[in-house]
UniProtKB/TrEMBL annotation:
Residues 182-322 form the FAS1 domain. SUPFAM superfamilies: FAS1 domain (SSF82153). Pfam families: Fasciclin (PF02469). Residues 332-341, 387-416 have a biased composition (Low complexity). It is found in: Cell membrane. This is Fasciclin-like arabinogalactan protein. Residues 1-20 form the signal peptide. Gene3D superfamilies: FAS1 domain. It comes from Helianthus annuus. PANTHER family: FASCICLIN-LIKE ARABINOGALACTAN PROTEIN, FASCICLIN-LIKE ARABINOGALACTAN PROTEIN 8. GO terms for cellular component: plasma membrane; side of membrane. Keywords: Cell membrane, Glycoprotein, GPI-anchor, Lipoprotein, Membrane, Proteoglycan, Signal.
Length: 442
């Protein structure tokens, strides 16, 4: 009997531990509160939601839609991402913890600090206990003021995530001044980063123009290093038709902005620019901690480094050329590439469909000329009221039920939609324990 009781206690303790470390979903949490709709949409649009969801201990400082409109209206989306990153603290703060500051101050790290762009203390937030029980928040930058005050406690899952409303945004020095539209020379960046072969291929085939046309609506590029093209197992590209080579290069890009934080949360295969009516060329993402591996179905390629992460463009350096399943050996009708003397280079494939529609790469026949590149990165004046329609490999879950917000009491804010898997586990454990008890007392 004593042994059975010990087994039951240990089992339930283990189950409680599993539930306590289950992840959170910031999109679901904020969906419960209509006053944060714009803030929530910006988190999704910038992919900060994925970065927040993958971290285990975090605090999100939010402000209502009226403040969002005043603070972020007219700013470029890359600036919006940096500004909101300042409001994501890499530590857990709830009302009781804020009240223990006791007339002092604490300096805490923000998500903006991890980008490598923070200067002069802009990547830190100063939290100070003010007179009359008020708590102030300000940038850690020199000379910054405590311009934001604690307003209310929104949601807590101790000690995983805390969402707190503040009265106004934290103004970090220099962050809002970086409002220039993104202007990146992709080819030059690749050449300087050890991807000269890939840069030459996308330039010679016209794929670079496809990348540039896609970029304003979202683009992710996986660029193989020069060493990757020297692999003994790599097929001879000279035996590829021009259209097949274009398809292979398009396979190294996604028609959507996916930073590394989002890659680390991908669960399903993701479509590439090479997907067409004949072939569905997808990639499967596998992760191990902060390591990301791309599985093409033929081989794997490790993401070595991030060359660029600026909404709406991310570029990664990988260590192997990606070959889609079924691409080699290709269909018999694929002809070798003709010499420049006998055949002019084919023009590029147009991209006129929205981001969510796969780019169609023809298998036969000439390729239509590409339209002029789209103007890049128009300023984001206000987010859509509903969730963004841009296709993403990590779709946000459906909104949760809408309980009332907490006004400072954290006792009823310890649940989230992220515990579904653990609830199933708990049910299985309960059945098992019930069977054990029945076998002993039945």
């Amino acid at each position: 009997m004593a042994t059975l009781r010990l087994i039951i206690i240990l089992t339930l303790s283990f189950t409680a531990t599993v539930i306590s470390v289950t992840g959170h979903n910031i999109t679901e949490i904020l969906n419960e509160f209509p006053s944060y709709t714009s803030f929530n949409n910006y988190l999704t649009q910038t992919k900060l939601n994925d970065e927040i969801n993958r971290r285990e201990t975090i605090t999100v400082l939010v402000f209502n839609d009226t403040v969002v409109s005043e603070y972020l209206s007219g700013l470029d989306i890359s600036v919006v991402k940096n500004a909101l990153s300042v409001h994501v603290l890499l530590d857990y703060f709830d009302l009781p913890k804020l009240q223990t500051i006791g007339g002092g101050s604490v300096m805490t790290t923000t998500l903006f600090q991890t980008t490598g762009e923070a200067e002069n203390g802009a990547g830190f937030v100063n939290i100070t206990d003010l007179v009359a029980g008020k708590v102030g928040f300000g940038s850690g930058g020199s000379g910054s003021k405590l311009n934001a005050l604690f307003s209310r406690s929104v949601k807590q899952i101790p000690y995983n995530i805390s969402v707190i409303e503040i009265t106004s945004p934290i103004i970090a020095p220099g962050v809002l001044n970086r409002s220039q539209p993104l202007d990146v020379n992709i080819s030059s960046l690749l050449e300087k980063s050890g991807c000269k072969t890939f840069a030459k291929l996308i330039s010679d085939t016209g794929v670079l123009q496809i990348y540039e046309t896609t970029e304003p609506r979202g683009l992710t590029v996986f660029a193989p290093s020069d060493a990757a093209f020297n692999a003994a197992s790599l097929p001879d590209f000279k035996n590829l038709s021009n259209n097949d080579l274009i398809s292979l290069l398009l396979y190294h890009a996604l028609p959507v902005y996916v930073p590394k934080g989002s890659l680390l949360t991908v669960k399903n295969p993701i479509g590439t620019l090479a997907t067409n009516q004949v072939q569905k060329f997808d990639l499967t993402v596998r992760t191990n901690g902060d390591s990301v591996t791309l599985d093409s179905g033929v081989d794997n390629s490790h993401v070595e480094s991030t060359l660029l992460d600026k909404v709406p463009l991310s570029i990664f350096k990988i260590d192997h050329v990606l070959i889609p399943a079924g691409f080699f050996p290709h269909s018999p009708e694929s002809a070798p590439v003709k010499s420049p003397e006998s055949s002019p280079p084919a023009p590029v494939v147009p991209i006129t469909a929205p981001v969510s529609t796969p780019v169609q790469v023809p298998v036969h026949g000439p390729v239509a000329a590409s339209p002029a590149p789209v103007a890049r990165n128009s300023p984001v004046k206000s987010p859509p009221v509903s969730s963004p329609t841009t296709s993403s490999p990590v779709a946000g879950p459906a909104p949760a039920d809408s309980p009332d917000a907490d006004t400072g009491n954290n006792d009823n804010n310890n649940s989230s939609g992220g515990v579904k898997a653990s609830v199933m586990f708990l049910a299985l454990v309960t059945v098992a324990v019930s069977g054990m008890i029945s076998s002993v007392f039945g």
